[in-house]
């Protein structure tokens, strides 16, 4: 599960490309860098987001951590419900994430079953790492297209000398399943990730001091 930290700087799978409006993308936040490159795990792309969020790492993590009844479902427009299927250890769990329809209804509601690992590092960084898994307690369900997350997650990194700022890296390489036009997928993820950072920043600002 060290892959996300390595992805921050590795170039062994080719350079990162930056989406533009010509690709059908709308990036509403100039403080967020979103890039992509072909995934080595499935016939799609891995998307990387990077931005500075005003707030301590503890505050940012409180908004991001993957737990049932957490704050994530309140601010993240792409997370409608988050369910715990199995708690394996204190830091490892299997969860189901339900997402709403998107892209003006072109993308139907999805659900994803993933194993999550939460890890803290000596430098104060905290990461949530996930990848798809099959679980007997959650077969595909009517009304949802089963999607598959390949190695993905978020990393909260303290900003040296600025305790009220957090650098947030996010990585997504998601097979949405179904028969979606490639153009819809390619425009959805960059715009969605930029919105993710904007909504995260608002959620952190709304928290009282921890």
From TrEMBL:
Pfam families: START. GO terms for molecular function: cholesterol binding; cholesterol transfer activity. Residues 1-14 have a biased composition (Basic and acidic residues). It catalyses: cholesterol(in) = cholesterol(out). Gene3D superfamilies: 3.30.530.20. InterPro entries: StAR-like, StARD5/6, START-like_dom_sf, START_lipid-bd_dom. The keyword Transport applies. Residues 1-20 are annotated as: Disordered. One of its GO terms (biological process) is cholesterol import. Coiled coil: none annotated. Residues 16-209 form the START domain. Keywords: Lipid transport, Lipid-binding, Transport. It comes from the Eukaryota. May be involved in the intracellular transport of sterols or other lipids. May bind cholesterol or other sterols. This is StAR related lipid transfer domain containing 5. It comes from Gasterosteus aculeatus aculeatus (three-spined stickleback).
